[in-house]
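Bench notes, afternoon.
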Amino acid sequence: MLSGDIFVTLLRYSAVAYAARASDGSLAELLLEQMLFKTGRRPSPSEITSWERSLPTLAADLLEAGLPNVEVLLEYHLPLTSKRADAVLVGRHPRTGGLSVLIVELKQWSQTRPWEDDPELVLIDGFPHSPRLHPVAQVRGYCGYLADFLKALDGLDDALAGAAYLHNAFNESSVQSLYAYPQDRQGRLFTGARRGDFIEFLRDRFAPEVSGAPYADMMINSAVAPSKQLLAVAAEEVQHREQYVLVAEQKLAYSIVLHEVEKARAADLKSVVVVTGGPGSGKSVIALSLLGELARRGRTVLHATGSRSFTQTMRKVAGKRSPRVQKMFKYSISLWTRSEMVWMS
């Protein structure tokens, strides 16, 4: 399993400390400094504007909800990806007494309209020909990803929730079409016109009197690996595809790798097996078959290549019937930037 991101979040504060930074105007500058320091990349002007306009609103809402102790992770980096969530709130769940995580996607949109006949795509003011992903679909995708890869959330069905918050949308009729998209716990839509509903949602997710710090530690320090549910889906998807049947030397290589995996696991050692062959010799089929079998055995396994285009192709082929399986295929640059390598175990 994996641990030790180069960075997990750009900034981390308690809600009350976060609100203080938001009120004195230093938050965007601090985020800019941290992005330069941790990633070497300068944020775009639109990112800085978004921080300046959106983050103070969330800070005020947390205090209005009476949640000064919730831990706030700003620009949270989804593990093994290049994606970042605007804000992740972490604390104790008021009913279960366990971990509670809320991903918040902040949007400055005040007016939207549907894009053609696709319910997942919308148009916003200023960009009449550039469709955007529905914000509920975006935050639900983040939730699904964390549920599939963050071990701290494995099996905790009520621990994770998502909210898309259009805090500048004070006219409901201007964004009414967004409500046609289905919502659930991992994807709820809130607007500035329904700010009270958002505040009540926050209160429903967090115990006010308890510090969120130890729960945030639990999340940040969590091992990263495919969940048991995702491994089961991957095994079912890959193992029952007739085009993945192995022949001759392919079967031999497959068996040798499986043997080495079990031997290394029993001895608590690391091992490397190199399978060579020209184009069309079946190396990819061997890798897919190993992915399916090791997933069936409940081993921690991912498929990684050095080619972005090939990774995209593998996602389309192996995850055609189950989009969740596509998460198992990684472009290796997203792995090598971590402090540990990926291996099968």
